[in-house]
Automatic annotation (TrEMBL):
Belongs to the binding-protein-dependent transport system permease family. HisMQ subfamily. CDD domains: TM_PBP2 (cd06261). It holds the Pfam family BPD_transp_1. It is found in: Cell inner membrane; Cell membrane. It comes from Peteryoungia aggregata LMG 23059. Part of the binding-protein-dependent transport system for glutamine; probably responsible for the translocation of the substrate across the membrane. It is a multi-pass membrane protein. This is Polar amino acid transport system permease protein.
């Protein structure tokens, strides 16, 4: 018997009164922003970082998903060495806080990458075909994206592994009997079914990355949080500024959660047909 997972605090048949309350709160604050010059000024400043937040989240999550899928496949390979390497990566990365990983990639990893690049291109540099790279050429935004990619890829790898292993082995054996190659079995049999298990936790990680993207502000990347910090430090309007910052993040995360939940329900409905 299958049990449908409902959001925490909800039972089947409950009306989403929490959503009604949130919409009322969001509309009220929206009206305040519209009629108040102070709140409008804060809002206009904060939303200038929205593009950076969206870019960091989308690129970071896409790269983390690709890397996570690769790590998951390596973790299920026939090679003991590859399986152990994948497990080592997952356990080590999951044990490091995202903020620490962000600092490590920004101030240790980036200089190492630059040094490696200069070493590889040394022959070209020596004859003047290219210039040596310096650390400041490695933008802080891309350092943050790489850190988020690495940090989330370990969790996403476990999501993919659990989803793929949830597929009944009898179907895989049947695909083998039909003469399908390993890649064909994965592409045509395993993954289309596994995505139903993978999508809910994967969408949760996407929403979580929207929130964790605020950590890039510690590097001075001009996202929503950083723009709020800059405005608050200059105006000392901490209540107004961080109320707007929280408001923008809530609209983003709850809006995304509702959209992804609706997509998940449509996906389930299609599989029942």
């Amino acid at each position: 018997m299958a049990f449908q997972t409902l959001p925490q605090g909800e039972q089947k048949g409950d009306r989403p009164w929490w959503l009604v309350a949130f919409v009322m709160l969001a509309v009220t604050l929206g009206i305040v922003i519209f009629v108040s010059d102070l709140y409008a000024q804060v809002f206009n400043t904060v939303v200038t970082g929205l593009g950076v937040t969206v870019f960091v989240t989308l690129i970071g999550f896409l790269l983390a998903t690709a890397l996570g899928l690769l790590i998951a496949l390596l973790g299920m390979s026939d090679s003991t060495f590859l399986r152990q390497m994948a497990r080592f990566y997952v356990e080590v990365v999951r044990g490091i806080p995202i903020l620490v990983l962000l600092f490590y990639i920004a101030f240790v990893g980036a200089p190492a990458i630059v040094a490696l690049y200069n070493l590889v291109t040394a022959p070209l540099i020596s004859i003047g075909l290219t210039d040596p790279m310096v650390v400041r050429d490695f933008s802080l935004m891309w350092r943050a994206i790489i850190a988020l990619m690495i940090g989330y890829s370990a969790f996403i790898a476990e999501i993919f592994r659990a989803g793929i292993q949830s597929i009944d082995k009898g179907q895989i054996e049947a695909a083998k009997a039909l003469g399908l190659s390993r890649s064909q079995r994965f592409r045509l049999v395993v993954f289309p079914q596994a995505i139903r298990v993978i999508f809910p936790p994967l969408s949760n990680d996407f929403v979580a990355m929207v929130k964790d993207s605020s950590l890039v502000s510690v590097l001075g990347v001009a996202d929503i949080t950083q723009m709020g910090k800059v405005y608050a430090s200059g105006s000392f309007r901490f209540f107004e500024t961080y109320s707007i910052v929280a408001y923008v993040y809530l609209v983003l995360t709850i809006g995304l959660s509702i959209l992804l939940r609706g997509f998940e329900k449509r996906m389930r409905a299609r599989t029942r047909e």
